[in-house]
Design goal:
This is Response regulator transcription factor. The protein has 229 residues and is an alpha/beta fold. The protein contains eight helices and twelve strands.
């Protein structure tokens, strides 16, 4: 089983190019990043189905990148790096990686590792339990039982996501729900900041993975059941 989309974060251009070709021949859509900051700046940074991460990277180092990814996504993460030693293995696994491969490694081995991890992450889990939006109290109820008080803008956004039933919601639809004008061209509509504040509000209240993610060139999606009560 292979993921549909994969982010390859590695500054070795030749290695990345040939590994990308190998994985694409297996039907995987690969996006390459030679700098961890470039990945984090991408609109779809936390929306990939899988991540292959080197440890020695420009920008945020590989271990810190894994910690950031694990905070925002439960996607598979495999480290492929030339760094050796039991302390390195302990560090990356503790940070949240699923598997650690040491370079040089055959592309077929990388593919097998991806498939093994993907079988695990693709299984239904408790993380897929329903979130609930209590309109009477203005609270979001996390599957772990945490209740989060919402602003009016937060509530409006979550009502949109609940109505979408797990499908992406366009920026235009979200702005209309908030009663804001849709700007022309590249003008800042403030939506990204509003989404960021909502996500941070949830992250501060619970360790449960926040299923709110950006959808490149579309808008945003709430990747978990969300019920109105």
């Amino acid at each position: 089983m292979q993921p549909k989309t994969l982010a390859l974060i590695d500054d070795d251009a030749e290695y990345s190019e040939f590994l990308t070709q190998f994985l694409q021949e297996q039907g995987v859509t690969v996006s390459r990043f030679d700098d961890s900051n470039a990945l984090l700046a991408a609109p779809e940074a936390f929306s990939f189905d899988f991540y292959l991460v080197d440890l020695m990277l420009p920008g945020v180092n590989g271990v810190e990148l894994i910690k950031i990814l694990r905070r925002r996504t439960d996607a598979g993460i495999v480290v492929v790096s030339g760094r050796l030693g039991p302390e390195v293995f302990r560090e990356v696994i503790t940070a949240g990686a699923d598997m650690y491969l040491v370079k040089p490694v055959q592309f077929e081995q990388v593919s097998l590792a991806i498939a093994a991890v993907q079988r695990r992450v693709a299984k239904p889990s408790a993380a897929e339990a329903a979130w609930k939006l209590d309109r009477a109290s203005g609270e979001l109820i996390v599957p772990d039982g945490t209740r989060i008080q919402l602003s009016e803008a937060d509530r409006q956004l979550l009502e949109c996501f609940a109505a979408a039933g797990g499908e992406p919601v366009t920026r235009e639809a979200l702005l209309n729900k908030l009663g804001r004008e849709v700007p022309d061209g590249e003008a800042d509509d403030g939506l990204s900041a509003t989404i960021y504040r909502l996500r941070r509000r949830i992250e501060r209240a619970t360790p449960t993975l926040v299923p709110l993610q950006s959808k490149s060139r579309v808008g945003y999606v709430f990747r978990a059941p969300l019920q109105l009560i």
